Every structure is written in C-alpha cells, then in structure tokens.
Amino acid sequence: MITASLTPKKQSASSKSENLLEVHNLKTYYPVKGGFFRRTIGNVKAVDNISFEIKRGDTLGLVGESGCGKSTAGRTILRLLTPTEGEIFFEGKNITRQSGRNLREIRKDMQMVFQDPYASLNPMQMVGDIIAEPIYNFYKRSKSELKQIVMDLLDKVGLPSDAYYKYAHEFSGGQRQRIAIARSLALRPKLIIADEPVSALDVSVQSQVLNLLKDLQQEFELTFLFIAHDLSIVKHMSDRIGVMYLGNIVELADKSNLYTKPLHPYTQALISAIPSPDPRMKKNRIILTGDIPSPINPPSGCPFHPRCPAAMEDCSINKPVLKEVKASHLVACHLY
Predict the structure, then answer these.
(1) Domain coordinates of the chain in residue numbers?
(2) Could you tell me the sign of the dihedral formed by the alpha carbons of 245, 250, 253, 255, in that order?
(3) CB-based contacts of 31-40 (< 8 A; 24+ apart in sequence)
(4) CA 181 – CA 197 distance, rounded (Å)
(5) Which CATH superfamily is domain 18-109+189-331 in?
(6) CA-derived radius of gyration, the chain
(7) d(CA 319, CA 310)
(8) 10-residue block means of pLDDT along the chain (336 residues)?
(9) How far apart are CA 51 and CA 231, in angstroms?
(10) pTM score > 0.85 for this model?
C-alpha cells in the first residue's frame, strides 16, 4: 500500500538478480484495410518478433531510426496495444492475455512517461489532481493524505509546492515533464517505460531531466525501458542497449561493448554518426544509401540488406536470427 511518506522499499539481493521483465517473440501488426468492403489487405509489421529481458534495477535502452517500432514495443509491453503474437512476462507472470481486473492490478506496477509532456497532461485539471488521480483510482485515501503524497512527489521531482494549484500550461516543457514523472511515480511502480522523455525538450533542460530520472531510479529502485533515438542519451542512461531496425532487434549488448565494438553494420553506421566533442578528431563516417523499406512489405531475408554495405547473397534469402556471438553480446547478422 502507498504511504504518505513515500519511503522506498528495499529489495533483497536475491530479487535484484531476477528478471523483472521478459519479452519472447513479440509481434505487433497494424492491419491495412482496402477495397469497397474495407477488408484487411496487409499488415504494418511495426514489431516483428523481438525478444529481450530486463533485470530488476537495470535500464535497457531501445534505439533506432524513427519508425523502427521501438515506441510500439513499449506500448505493447504495457498492454496499451494488443500483441499479435508472442509473450510478455512481468515478475514471472504471463501478462500477454490478461484483461479486466487482472490487467488493472498489474498496471499499478508498470507506468509510462510519454514523449510530449503537454499532450500527455490533462489541460483541464490542476497539477495536484493530475498526480493524485492514479492513487484515487486504486486506493482509498482522504483528501489530506492524497495532498501530502502529491506534495512529497512534487518535492521529489524538484517542483515547488504551489505547483499543486496550477495548470499544465503555466509550466515550461521541462517542468511539465517533471509533472509527468511525478504522476508515473504515484503508484510506486516497479517498471517505467520512458518513451523519448527528453526529445521534446531544450538541450539545456534535457540533462536535468535525465539526471532526475537516474536519481529517482536509485532512490525508488526502479527498472527502466528507455526508448530514444539519440545514441549519446541512451549511452548515459542504459546498462544494456538494443538496436532496432524495421521492427527487429539487430543487436543487443552491454553499453560498453556496443559503443566500443559494434558488430552489426547498422549499429556501426549509427555509432559513426555520433558527433565528436573534439572538432580536431576525424571519424570514419559510414553513410547508408537508400531509404528504410516499408514495414508493410519488408524485404526478404535480412531487413537491412538493401542498405547494408556488407550484404551477401545469403542476406537477401535467409533472415538472420539474434544469437550470442560474444559474452552477453547478441547480433542478428550473417557475418557472424
């Protein structure tokens, strides 16, 4: 139960090593309708057979170009979208086909911070009501208890107490995202999916919000799925990183291995595009040609082969599977 003091609960060392979240062969397709009778004529394969796990207290970063399916993956894990195939295990419980009361109970432990803090906050509610609403929906609390919990949360995210009586439009973008973070913490979740949480903010504010998330993760022992397209931000936030391309995870590794020794040609191209802080340092930039194929009609074999500088004949025929080629370093590529 939630207490007004918001004192974080300590987990045992044994539970720390367990996987909080496991995703197995997850697919999420959007049907494409056409014709006079609006029949299904195809599918947008937004997420096409991905698997990964996240240990308690860790952060897994998902990175890739816009439209690669990383946001769809996050929303599917929270069951905001219904998966087409695959299984999602949260604390060992298969939540893929949970519904009604069972799904409602699970959602207390899984929350989301959305990309646009203005669109995700109700403009008709005061900030105090926005943060208190999740608690009100799940627990019976007096008005004084609710107010105390919200005040504590405002303090945790670095907002003044008078924010309680204001509306979202009275705050800057960074402050609005702090409100969204406070709301995500209201039910003391175990997993937070942060979907591009700083991409809509000024660069000067991004570091403040990122450092806040890291501080809150340590204090509340949170587990993060951190979704972004900025490789430097993902490196700062994550313990492990998964690289997505056209609905597939093409590489999954610890951040140190991924950034120093990327294996997949797509990952190598992304890493080469990171600007160097030293203007005198020259980098061998890998320029990819062509456009991202349509997720409605993806290419046969490896989805990256039409743009891959190391493509072979086998790449256009057989789709590579994600496999471990080094210790804790997985890659889906015929080169290995």
Answers:
(1) 18-109+189-331
(2) negative
(3) 32/296
(4) 9
(5) P-loop containing nucleotide triphosphate hydrolases (3.40.50.300)
(6) 21
(7) 15
(8) 47 59 96 87 92 96 92 95 95 89 91 90 95 91 91 95 95 94 95 93 90 95 94 92 96 94 94 79 80 88 93 93 93 95
(9) 21
(10) yes
